[in-house]
Design goal:
Helices cover 80% and strands 0% of the residues. It is mainly α and 179 residues long.
Length: 179
């Protein structure tokens, strides 16, 4: 369940959020505005990555992970509010370092757990990725199905709080490195 939630966050943040922003918020100069939003927030995330990496390598990785997952859930809920470039950039500036703060420890813990499966490392990673892919497929099919009954832009907008709640399942992970 934790990896499925991890992958739901991934597709909601990397694919659906830019789609919603591009289609629902930026009617003109879409690519220029998306480029500005992504560039600024990526720059902030790059500046924060070194510090985050130091924490991941320390004994405080679990606290960083748990806090970032909680903040990430709130960020998904807040995605219904931006109405302009400034709001999108502000949310992205908060989101990108937060995302790195849970993805880095989670990925490290995943590969540490795979290393513990002597002789089955690749099978472990593959089965974990399969679970994530099935979750993303179900997520996309659900959005597609709902769009047959409601306005697609409303589905894109209002699914973010639901995704935020679902991403809290990342907190039930059982990786030794994050206990």
């Amino acid at each position: 369940a934790a990896h499925a939630a991890f992958e739901l966050d991934n597709i909601a943040s990397i694919a659906i959020w830019p789609l919603y922003v591009g289609v629902g918020l930026f009617a003109t100069n879409t690519y220029a505005k998306l480029g500005i939003a992504v560039s600024i927030s990526t720059g902030v995330a790059l500046l924060a990555a070194w510090s985050i990496g130091k924490i991941v390598d320390s004994a405080k990785s679990r606290s960083l992970y748990n806090g970032a997952v909680a903040v990430n859930a709130v960020i998904h809920g807040l995605r219904i509010f931006p109405t302009n470039l400034f709001g999108v950039v502000a949310l992205n500036i908060i989101n990108d370092p937060t995302t790195a703060s849970f993805r880095m420890p989670y990925t490290k813990a995943l590969y540490d757990a795979a290393d513990e499966q002597e002789g089955y490392r690749i099978a472990y990673i593959t089965s974990t990725m399969l679970v994530g892919s099935l979750a993303k497929g179900g997520y996309c099919l659900t959005l597609w199905w709902l769009m047959h009954f409601y306005q697609p832009i409303h589905i894109l907008k209002w699914h973010f709080p639901v995704v935020g709640a679902l991403t809290l399942y990342m907190l039930i992970q059982q990786y030794r490195a994050l206990r």
